[in-house]
Amino acid sequence: MQQYFVQGKLNIDERFVFNKEQAHHIKNVLRMKQGSQVRVVDTCEQPYLTAIEFADDQVAGLVLEALPLNASRVKTTLIMGLIKGDKWDYLLQKACECGAYEIQPMISSRCVVKAKEEKADKKLMRWNKIALEACEQCKRAHQTPVLASADFDQVLGVQADLKLIAYEDADLKACNLAAVFKEHPDISSIAVMIGPEGGFSLEEVAKAEAFGFVRVSLGTAIFRAETAALFALNAISYHYDLSGEVK
């Protein structure tokens, strides 16, 4: 069932109007009929079952019933080093599907990609459109925002109950990820920092630790940057949402 995010708070038996882009998608792409049903999520992150109604040149929805929430128990901020082209777009899409609550693009010392001021606004709009479509596709009630790119030093002050930095463990001082989760059973937010293609320097890792980040290993394999991010998000989701009980 198709999902759309709509503005405002909805109520049962209430009618609302889809925006122009959504109306075009409903009429001309999906070719829905009068009474076709879609899932909509309001600004309170409540999903509803809705019936399509066509009136004049507008596409409206009639709210039929509230649907169960599917929110994660832990809100995860992904702080991600910028990576090249298509890999970045792929990462944004899959990170939303894997439960990232928000995504913070980061420029660290080994980033090959550098943010260009003159194109920053357009890029951010495109990134957020990718995230929006991914959240709609996977039926998440939370619309994951992609924040403006920030330098490494700027993201160190992020607020979270648990802050992690994934490192390839060149100096064998990283903690086991599962062990760290077991030590933090009752948390509501996590920030996980993943480096770009070249990873982090030891100086960056040390600086992050000084700001409360825990250095963690993702295992013995050396992942691509985008794979490491998705691995970490899935590990968080499994432990805090799918394991049945917090261990």
UniProtKB/TrEMBL annotation:
Q: Which GO terms describe its molecular function?
A: rRNA (uridine-N3-)-methyltransferase activity
Q: What is its EC number?
A: 2.1.1.193
Listed GO CC annotations: cytoplasm
Alphabetical UniProt keywords: Cytoplasm, Methyltransferase, rRNA processing, S-adenosyl-L-methionine, Transferase
The chain positions of domain Ribosomal RNA small subunit methyltransferase E methyltransferase read: 72-236
The main enzyme category here is transferase
Q: Name one GO biological process term.
A: rRNA base methylation
- What reaction gets catalysed by this protein? uridine(1498) in 16S rRNA + S-adenosyl-L-methionine = N(3)-methyluridine(1498) in 16S rRNA + S-adenosyl-L-homocysteine + H(+)
- InterPro entries per the record? Alpha/beta_knot_MTases, PUA-like_sf, RsmE, RsmE_MTase_dom, RsmE_PUA-like, tRNA_m1G_MTases_N
* Positions of the Ribosomal RNA small subunit methyltransferase E PUA-like domain: 19-46
Record localization: Cytoplasm
Main localization of the protein described in the UniProt heading = cytoplasm
Its family? Belongs to the RNA methyltransferase RsmE family.
Question: What biological function has been recorded for the protein in this entry?
Answer: Specifically methylates the N3 position of the uracil ring of uridine 1498 (m3U1498) in 16S rRNA. Acts on the fully assembled 30S ribosomal subunit.
Kindly provide the name given to this protein in its UniProt entry.
Ribosomal RNA small subunit methyltransferase E
- Native organism is Dielma fastidiosa
